Records
---
Amino acid sequence: MIIYVLQPLFYILLLLQEIFEVVKMSFCIRQYKSADKSKKIFMNLNEYRYISFDIFDTLLKRSVARPSDLFEYMEEYCHYNNIQIPDKFAQNRINAESTLRKRNGGEVTIDEIYTELQSYFNNSVYKLKSLELSLELNGCRANPEMVAILSKCIQSGKTVILISDMYLSSEFIMKMLEKCSIYGYAKIYVSCEHGCSKRNGDLYKKVLTDLNIKPNMLFHIGDNNKSDYSIPLSLGIHAHKIRSLQTKLCKVPKIIKGFDALIFKTITSCINNCIKGESEFGKLGAKTFGPILTGFSIWLKKQIEIDKINDIYFMSRDGYMLKRAFDALNIPNVKTHYLYCSRRAYTVPLLWKNISFENIFKTITFYGTITLSLFIMKLGMYPEDFIKEAAECGLDLNAKFNVDQFIQNYKVRNFYEKIKNKIIEQSKNEYETLLAYISSQHMDKKIGVVDIGYNGTMQNALELLIKEAKLGIEVKGYYVGVSPKSEIINKKMINASGYLYEKGKNEQIVTNVPSSIFELVFLNQHGSVKKFCYRNGQIEPEFYEYEYSAESDKIKKLIEYQNGAIHFINEYIGSFTHNALSISPEVALYNFKKMVFSPSKLEAEYWGDFEFFDVTYSVIAKPRNMLYYLFHFKSFLTDFKLSNWKIGFLYRLLNVPLPYSNIVSFAQRIYHFFNK
Amino acid sequence: MRGTKHMDIKFSLLLATLNRPEILKTCIDALLKQTYCNYEIIIVDQSDKEFCDNSIAAIDSRIKYIHIDKKGLSHARNIGLQYVTGDYVCLVDDDGLYEQKYLETSNKLIKKMNPTVLIGLLIDPAQNKPASDLNDCRIGWKNVFNGLCSACMIIKAGFLKTVKFDENFGVGSKYGSGEETDILLTALKQNKIIFFSRQIKMYHQNPIVEDIPIQKIKNYAFGYGALCKKMFIMHSKFWGFYYIAKTVVGNFVLWIMQNLKSNKDAAKKRKARAIYTVKGFISYKYK
C-alpha cells in the first residue's frame, strides 16, 4: 500500500523541485533580457537623426519616490533645523499647484505656485521656495543607463533635445543636469516656459516646428505611458517607453505607517539607485544591511550631538562596519577610532581583583548550556592543560550543564579552587598590558564606545580599567541593541543606549532574528583579540586565528555584501534626507528581517553554510538530506534544535518556499507548551 | 504580398516520409484526387538509399521530391519549408487518408476566417471515433492539448518562415512528440488565430492509451513532459503547470485504480506515462 503513496509522492516532489528551478531560471532570463535593454534601445535609434529624452525619472532620478513626497520632507527638515514652516505646508503646496493649474488651464511656474501659496498663509513662504529648490538639486541623481544612451547619441552626431512637463525653469533644470554631469544636448523644452505640455502633444509640435522636421524623423524616450509614449506615437513620432519604477517604489508594507512610510520609499528609491552594477551580494547588502547601518549612524550622530561627545571608539570586531558607516557621514570635529577588544581580552585581566566563583559569573556572561571546556576558555586558558585536574574532580571536560546546575555543582567548585592560582597569575599578567594599551589611546575626558551590543560586558570592563588606571574618563556606550535583561545596564553600572532596542523600547523587535547572521554581517576580517602584548616596544593586540579563510568564496561574498551596504549609505547621505531624518528601527530592520524570515534559496544556502560559535562551533543552517532524516528522526530534532537559523534550516531541507516563519513559531509554541 | 481574401489560396502539402514507399504512393494517389487543384506536394524523404525513388516526382508536375539523410520529422519539415511556394502549408502524414474535399473546405474556411493555423478533425477509421470532442472554435491555452494532431494542420507559410519546427521534438528526435503543439504554443504566444473545424476531416490511426505499445507511450510522455517545460519557460507558466500537474497526478490516480481492478498491463502503461512525463520535464534543458 505504501508504494502507492511514496512512489507518486517522490515523482511529484521531483517535479515540484524542477518547477521551482525553472521559475528561478526564467526570472534570470528576464533579468538578463532587461540588462540587455539599453543596447537594444540604442540599436533602434540608429536610423534617427533627432532624439528627444524626457528628463525626470528618465535621465534624472530623485531620492523621493513621488514628487509630492518632497514637500513632506520639507516639513520634517524645517522642524529639525528650527526653520519656520506653516502647518500643513505639504498639503497646501499640492493644493496651490492644482488650483493654479485649473485656473490657468495648464502650465504653471514655481514662482506662480509660491505666489498662490502665499495667499494661504500669513507668514512669508518665499524662503521655502529656495529650500524646495535646494532640496531638489541635492536630491537628484543621474540614471546611468539612460545617460549612457544619451552620450552615445551625442557621440554619433545626433541632435539631442530634452523635453519635460515641469514647473521648474529650464535654467534650474540645466543646473540639475550639470550636477549630474549631463552635457551635450541641444536644447531643453520645459512646459511651464512654453505654455504647452507633452501631455496634450503641443510641446512635441513646438519641438517639431522649431527643428523644422517631420514627426517620423524624431525618436522620443521617456517613462510616462501617456505623455512619453501614446501621445508622441499618435503624432507620428517614434517613441520608446522605459520601465517606470514609480509603482515599485511607492509600495510600502502595511506594518510601516505614517512618516516611516515616506522614509521606506526613500530607502527603496536609494537602493534602486545604488544597486546598478553591483554583484548579487552587493545588492543584497545594500538592501538588507545598508538601512541598518545608515539608521544607526544617523542615530549615533544625533546622540553624540546631544551628549556632546567628539571622541568615538568603535570596538572590534563588530564595530568595524559601524565605523565605516559612521565615517561615511563625514562629520567634522568628531574623531573616530577602532579599539581592539574582545570579551576575553577585557574581562580576564580583571578577574584577579575579585576571584570568587560567583563573581566569575557576574563578570563573564554564559548562556544556556555550558561545558567545563568553555568555562576554562572563557577564563583565558586552554582546556587541554587541565585534563588531569578535571579527572581528579571526577569531571568530563565536554559534559554539558545548564548554567545554574554548573554553578551549584560542588565538583565544579572543587575544580575551580584547584585552578584558581593559575587564573590569578594569568589575569595579572594580562592586566598590565591591557592598561598600557588603553593609556596609549590618549582618550578625551568624555568618550563614546560603539559596538553591536547586547550586554555591555566590554564597556563595563573598560570602565573598570579606566577607573583602575585613574584616567578620569567618562564613557557612554552606543549600541545597535542592548539586551533588556542585561544586569550591567539595568543596575546602571554603565551608561548605555541602543538604537534598535533596549529596555522599554522595541524589546521584541529582534525576536527570532538569528543572532549568528546578525553578528556575522558586522564582522571584520581578523580573528578575535586574545590579549595584548609588547612587540618591538609597541603594545599590540594578539589575535586568535581567524575562523574563516580570507580567500574563501564565502568571505569574498561577505565583503561584497558589506561594500554594498556602504554604497547604500553613500547614496542615502548624498540625498538631502540625512540632515533631517532618522530611520526608525522598524524601517531599518524591515529588509533584513524579510531576508531571514523568508529567504530565497541563494540566501538560505549562503548564510546557512557559515559556522557560528555558541557552546561549540556549529553550522548556522545546514541540514542533511531528507532521506537521512526520514530514517533518523532523532538526529533531525537535534540538528534542528542546534541550528541557529531554523527557517533557513527548513528551507534548505525541503527546498520549497513555504511560510517557514509561521511554521517555526508554531513549532516553538508547541515545544514551550509541552515543556512548561 | 500574396492576398488570401480575393485570390485562390495555394497550398503546399508538406509530407515527410521514412522507409514506407508503398504507403507513400497510396497517400500521393489519394492526395492527387483532391477537388481543389491549386497546390503543390513537397515530399521530404528520409529513407535509406534502396527505398529512395525519384520517379515519384514524375507522377505529377506539382510534386517536388527532396531526399535527405538525416532522420527526424521536425528536421525533415524544416528542410521541406525551404521549398514552399504556397500561402498555406498543409502538414501531411504518409499513412493518413485525406478526404477529397480536404483542401476545398480548407480554402473556404481560410477565406472566411483568415487564421494563422487551421486544424481539422482526426478520425480513427478502426473505431470511427474522432480524436477531439471540440466543436468548431478558436483554440486557446485552455484547449491546445485537446486531441489536436499535426496530420491535419494547415499553417500560414509566412508564419512558418519566422517560426521553425523545434528539432528536439517530433518522431526521430530526442523527444518523440510535441512538434505540432510547440508551433501552436508559439502562435498562441503571438496572439495568432488558431481555428479548429470539424468540417475538415482526415483518417488516421488513433488508438487509446491502453492499446498503444508501452515504448510508444514512454516516447510520447517524454516529449509531452519536455513540451510542458518549454511551455512553462517560454510561454505561459500557469498553463505549463496546469498541464503537467493534470497529466502526472491524473495518471498516478489511474495507475492506482487500474491496479485495484487488477488490470496490470493498463496500470503499467499509466504509471509509465506519469513517470516519463516527469522525466521528460526534468530532462528538457532550455538553451
---
Amino acid sequence: MLEIYQGSLPTQEIYAKWEAFAKGEIKDQGKQHTSFENLERFKNGALCVFTGIVRAEGGISALSFDIYEPLLKKWFEEWQRRANEEFGAMIFMTHSLGDVPCGESSYMCAILSPKRRAALEIYEEFIEDFKANAPIWKYDVIEGKRIYAKERSKALNGSGILSDAQSERGTTQADSKIFQNLASYPQSLAKSPLFMPKIFAFSGKSNSGKTTLICKLAQYFEERGHRVGIIKHDPGDKAHFDIEGKDSYKFYQSSSVSTLISPTRAVIQAKALEKSEEELFYATLKQMSNIHGLKFIFVEGLKHLPYPRLVVTRGEIDEDYIACASAFAIDESVGNADILPPHLPTLNLNNIEQIAEFITQYQV
Amino acid sequence: MIKVEFLGPMSEIEPKELKASEVATLGDLKAILQLDSRLHTWLPISAVAVNDELIDDVGFTLKSGDKIALLPPVCGG
C-alpha cells in the first residue's frame, strides 16, 4: 500500500491503519497493488515500522519534497509483488509531498510478514533501494527558500546518457554509487541479493562424483532451510521422463509446453522449438526463481556459461577444466594436484561442510 | 509530438514539444537538449524515462506520442 500525503505525515493515524490491516480489519482495495492471497488473517507475526523524522541541521526550518508518482508507483508495485510472492509479506509506505517542518515525519514504511526474519531482511533492502531509486527530490527550506539538496542526492541508474561530459560524473555523492550498480531500473530490484538465488555450476567427467556431490550439497542446504534448484544439462538427449501412451506423453507430443500438476509436484516439459540450449537455460532459470524463492541454483554441466564453477575430479585432473574453474573439489585418488595454479582453491570432495561454506561465501 | 518534461529541481524549465520526425532516437534528443544552456549542468547527472520506464540506451527509438522525463539525482526519506 503506497500513499502520498501533502505535508507532514500523521504518523499515529498511519500506524493505526497499518495495524488494522495486519489484524485483517481492513481489506485491500485492490487499486494500488496486486492481490495478497498469501496474506492470511492472524498469520502475521511481525510488523517492522520505520519512521523518518526531519532533523534540524544546517539552519533548515523544514524539508520539502517533489515526487514523480508514475515511476514511484511502478517501483513500489514491483517490490510489493516480489515481497508478497516470495515471503508472503506486504509492504506499506507513505511519503510527504511539499514542506515538512523539523521534528515532523516525512517517510514511513513497514513490512508485515508471518516471520520476523523475512520482515527484517526485506526491511533493510527495501529502505536502501528506496534511497537509491525512488523518484523523489528533496529540498532544504532555509529562510523560506527551497534549495535542492544536490549533495545528498543520488543519480539514478543510466544517468548521463544525454551527455558527453563524462568527467562531470561523480560530482555528486550519488554518482559514485550509481555506476557501481549499472542494473537498469526497475531491474535493480531483481539484482537485489534478497531475491536472487546464488548460482553455482559444477563440471567434471562422468564418474567424477559430480552428481553425488550436488545431491549432498542440495540436501545440506535444504536441511538448513535454504531452498535449492538444480539444472542438469543432458547433451546427449538421453533422459526419459514419460511413458509412451500415457496422457501426459500425448499432451507433450501434441503441444509446445505441457505441465502436469499433482498434489506433490509440478512437471513442466517444454519443447526446444528453435531455441538454443543457452536460451532454454536462461528461460528455465527465470521460471525456477519465480516458483519458490530459491536461495541456490546448481547447474550441472554447460561449461561455457559464465558462473562460478566447481570442477569435481577423481583420478587424474584434466587440464582443459582449469580455465572454467573457480575451485576444484578433489579426493585422495588425485595424483597430479600439483598442476593446478596456486590461486585456485582446492577443496576436499568428501567434506560437504567445507564446500557448502565455500559456495556460501563465494563472491563473484 | 514527443513531450519532454524536466522533473524535480529542473521543473522551472518549461516542457518541450518536439516533432517525432526530429527525434528518431534518444541520441537525437541529446543533440537538441545540449543546445539549451540551462540543461548543461543537469544532463550529465540526469536519468531518462520514456513512458515511465527508465532507459539507459542512447540508441533507444522514439515514436510520436512518447512521454519523456528527465530525472535528476533523487533523495527520498
